[in-house]
Amino acid sequence: MEATQGTAHLVKVCPISELPPGTLKGIEFEGRRILAANIDGKIYAHDGTCTHEEADLSNGFIIGDRVVCPLHLSQFDLKTGEAVTSPAVEPLKNYKVKIEGPDVYVEVD
Description:
mainly beta, Rieske Iron-sulfur Protein
């Protein structure tokens, strides 16, 4: 499901019940990967592609508040998108998250 909001699109990620604390959910929208993560009950969203080698971060795993890339083990802070460990050095793009009813949406421009 998608709704247009100005020049941005609200893209449905999943029902919030499918994203419990400590989990990741990846989706694709118009050829780009988007990663949503639930850290201690708060949902964050970022580009879902590692900035080092373009691996799909939804295939990674969470340690604390970081996602670990499945390819070369780069880590990104899921609250800020910052690259925390090498080999990645570029941060992930952040997306605004909206909870509407039982569903999680991200605002994609």
